[in-house]
Design a protein that fits this description.
The protein has a single domain, classed as TusA-like domain (Translation Initiation Factor IF3), CATH 3.30.110.40. It is built from 2 helices and 4 strands; from the N terminus they run E-H-E-H-E-E. The protein has a 4-stranded mixed beta sheet with strand order 1-2-4-3, covered by helices on one side. Strand 3 and strand 4 form a beta hairpin.
Amino acid sequence: MSDYIEVDARGLSCPEPVMLTAAALKKNPGKNLRILASEAHVRTNVEKLLKSKKVNFSSREEGNEFVIETEN
């Protein structure tokens, strides 16, 4: 299993999760990220960011939270 840089966006409102994800992508080029979110709209907005940057990712729901993992 790959090591991930974790971005914990649980409980945060947009645009903060998107900004944290963008900063993590910039600070950690080539590294895989794991973004944790507690709201569906945060998941959607982070996914839009990743698509716009052409970053491969997968996302899933775990209980009441969402996990988005980038894939390099």
